């Protein structure tokens, strides 16, 4: 090995590539980018404000020193637990520091001005959040521990929001007068997302079994469901308005249970139809992927086809089924946002209201919880799939 190769090998063993990149992005964002934006009201564009202008000098210096120390930790090949703590500590510190910016930038009698995060803040926050996520992967936590870690992070974020430390930020000012409506729309979003996936499972599991046992049925069934997937979501919502409206007008029992041309009913049906393809295809492919030796051994031991399905195929196929369900649920949570266009409610209500009013903070009031819900569902089902595999 030459001296240059030895030096390169030593350097690569000292520094962590992902951590080095994240540290560089974070420090560059804090040093060169705007930490906050100052808007005269909720609609007009904001002016960028640097870290040392947005915060009091002691707070700004503390944030920069903490970020620099954490950057050194993550840039080097340090233990995964230390990297996790560094990433979470800086992410929390950045949020708390941003919460102090309004008191430093805005006069107490100014009720219209809005303070929000700048792109420098987002670069640093997301960089250290990425480091924390990578550290969790490196720790190779068991499924239950991963779910517990997710619960702790969500509990910490909830406690931070409940403490009032962020109440003066623009996003929370949009939330304050809409708190009751926000939680009502949250319940609607959960109903649309999880309810439609539950309905898709109820219909899709038998269809998937039929595809598995009847190749002649599989082609037409998957072809029909694939054709539904090609229809844009807004178009499918619109196509369902007329037939469901006719049912509501001509069948009193349908109207009595809440079926109508607009609202939750067409959104629920459309989301269920969209979720059917990944469920049916996931069931069929997961069952087909079970080891043939295990199935043949089950049959040789005297098991019937039904017993082999329930006791051998289904347990072996469970990890792939849960992985397919994870994709389905995350997709449905996102699509449920579009359902607000036909009066179904959900977090999309705030997204489209904000777009109509050109109020980006109101858009974020709907977008941020949607992303958080999808991320939490993905982590939980990924842990469930790994637990099933074990």
From TrEMBL:
Gene3D superfamilies attached to this UniProt entry: MetI-like (1.10.3720.10)
Pfam families: BPD_transp_1
Membrane topology: Multi-pass membrane protein
Gene Ontology BP term (one): glycine betaine transport
Major location category of this protein: membrane
PROSITE patterns: ABC_TM1 (PS50928)
InterPro entries, alphabetized: ABC_transp_perm/SBD (IPR051204), MetI-like (IPR000515), MetI-like_sf (IPR035906)
Subcellular location(s) per record: Cell membrane
Keyword annotations: Membrane, Transmembrane, Transmembrane helix, Transport
CDD domains in the record: TM_PBP2 (cd06261)
Membrane spanning stretches: 18-37, 49-74, 81-99, 119-137, 144-166, 186-209, 221-244, 264-287, 333-352, 359-381
Residue intervals of the ABC transmembrane type-1 domain: 186-381
UniProt-listed SUPFAM superfamilies: MetI-like (SSF161098)
Key word Chaperone present: no
GO cellular component terms given for this protein: plasma membrane
Similarity remark: Belongs to the binding-protein-dependent transport system permease family.
Identification of the protein by name: ABC transporter permease
